[in-house]
Design a protein that fits this description.
Blueprint lengths: L1 H6 L7 H25 L4 H6 L3 H7 L3 H13 L11 H16 L2 H10 L5 H28 L7 H18 L6 H20 L2
Length: about 200
C-alpha cells in the first residue's frame, strides 16, 4: 500500500508544461521590460527561462503571440477594481495599483508601446488590456450607482477623470505617485460628480 502511494505522485492538470509556460512568460516579461517590444529577441527567452528552445517554439511558434500573451498575463492585475462597499477607497486603491504597475520597467514599456503601434497583434493586446480596465471600472461604478453611493454617472468619463492625472504624474517621472495624490484626485472628482448631480 505504501509503495503504491509513494510511486504515484498527484498529477495536476497542466503539470510540468504549465510550469514551463509560466517560466517562459515570466522571462518574456523581463526581456520586454529590459529591451522594449521592438528590441525583444525571441532567441533569448529559452536561456532566460532556463528551458529548452523547443519548449518555447512548441508553445509559441510565433514571436508576437508570445509577447501578446505575456502582456495580457502581466496586465491582468491592472484591470481589476476591488469592491469593499466604499467607492472612494476602491478608486484610491485602483489608482495606486495603476501607478504601481506603470512605474515598473514593464509598465513603462506598455505605456511606450501604446504610442508607436507598429505590430497589429501587440496593439490589439494593449487595446484589450485597456478595454478590460475600462470594463472593470464600469462594473464597479455601476454597482456604486445601484447602491446609491454615487449618482448616475458615465463610468468611462469617471475612469478618464481619475486615471488621467496618474498617467500625467507617472509619465512625467518628476516624482512618485502617492496615496495622498490618489485621495485628492478621487475626492475632487467624486465631489464634482455629486455637486453637478444635485444641480440637475
Amino acid at each position: 500500500m505504501a509503495d503504491g502511494t509513494d510511486r504515484s505522485p498527484a498529477r495536476r492538470p497542466g503539470g510540468r508544461n504549465a510550469r514551463v509556460r509560466a517560466q517562459i512568460l515570466a522571462a518574456t516579461v523581463e526581456l520586454v521590460a529590459r529591451d522594449g517590444i521592438a528590441g525583444f529577441r525571441y532567441e533569448e527567452v529559452a536561456e532566460s527561462a532556463g528551458v529548452h528552445k523547443t519548449s518555447v517554439y512548441r508553445n509559441w511558434p510565433d514571436r508576437e503571440e508570445l509577447v501578446v500573451e505575456a502582456l495580457l498575463r502581466y496586465a491582468e492585475d491592472l484591470a481589476s477594481v476591488a469592491d469593499t462597499g466604499d467607492i472612494h477607497r476602491d478608486l484610491v486603491d485602483f489608482l495606486l495599483a495603476l501607478a504601481g504597475g506603470m512605474e515598473t520597467p514593464f509598465g513603462r514599456t506598455l505605456e511606450q508601446a501604446i504610442q508607436p503601434a507598429r505590430q497589429s497583434a501587440t496593439v490589439e493586446a494593449l487595446t484589450k488590456i485597456l478595454d478590460q480596465r475600462v470594463a472593470a471600472m464600469q462594473r464597479r461604478v455601476d454597482t456604486a450607482v445601484d447602491r446609491g453611493e454615487l449618482p448616475p454617472v458615465d463610468s468611462s468619463f469617471l475612469g478618464e477623470m481619475i486615471s488621467g492625472p496618474v498617467h500625467l504624474i507617472v509619465n512625467r517621472g518628476m516624482r512618485r505617485f502617492t496615496r495622498e495624490d490618489a485621495e485628492r484626485i478621487v475626492g475632487v472628482v467624486l465631489a464634482g460628480i455629486q455637486a453637478t448631480a444635485s444641480h440637475v
